[in-house]
Amino acid sequence: MSQPQPKFSSDSPEWVIAPGLTPYAESVAAMEDHVAQMHSGNAPERIWLVEHPALYTAGTSAKASDLLDARFPVHETGRGGQYTYHGPGQRIVYTMLDLNRRGRDVRGFVKSLEGWVIGTLAGFGITGEVRDGRVGVWVPRPEKPPLPDGSMREDKIAAIGIKLRRWISFHGISINVEPDLSHYGGIVPCGISGHGVTSLVDLGLPVSMEDLDTALKTSFPRHFGAGTGF
């Protein structure tokens, strides 16, 4: 007897781009609803691309001392990680993916998210890297003065923070296209001092949000398609 086929493809999530700026609380409610529908088998996997108004979010490991200046609204959230900034000019990539189908491997999933970001940046000629003990994706900056200990300066271009509910993921990735980088001054981003933050435009690349969205969609199958484990 043949086995019933999944109602939705595990290799091709739907892609949705939200217009304008989406309030943070509204986005969380929408993700919660979609994940619940996925659990019921009534909704497909989704990659949701949004921008938020300027705000800070506090992950489950956030330290009060890392909030230096609450110049924007602060939202506590159930994702992993510490404090981060969201705002106009930053692409938020909410990944609602079913790890029941893709493999129940949290570390492997995070590694695939990192690889997806790195592969996307490579399409613009940017070398993104990951570092043990430092979440997110970093860009080496040899042209800048080294840190006091002599090590190379590295700037963060993308943050990653996920949450799983019954092995369906939500929250996800933020990538700096052209945000106001001074807004990061109100927090210690992800609890990491010394290194800075950057963006595609800060690196001298006239990349639009639409350019990044296209690159994300092109790179996705190489990291989450059939045969990848996710």
Structural commentary:
This protein has helices spanning 24-39, 99-102, 106-122, 209-224; strands spanning 14-17, 46-50, 55-58, 74-76, 83-86, 90-96, 129-131, 134-140, 154-165, 168-176, 196-197. With 230 residues, the protein is an alpha/beta fold. The strands form two sheets. Strands 1, 2, 6, 7, 8, 9, 10 and 11 form an eight-stranded mixed sheet that branches. It is 23% helix and 26% strand. Mean pLDDT is 90; it is low at 1-9. The radius of gyration is 18 Å and the shape is globular. It contains four helices and eleven strands. A hairpin with a 2-residue loop joins β7 and β8 (134-140). α3 (106-122) crosses α4 (209-224).
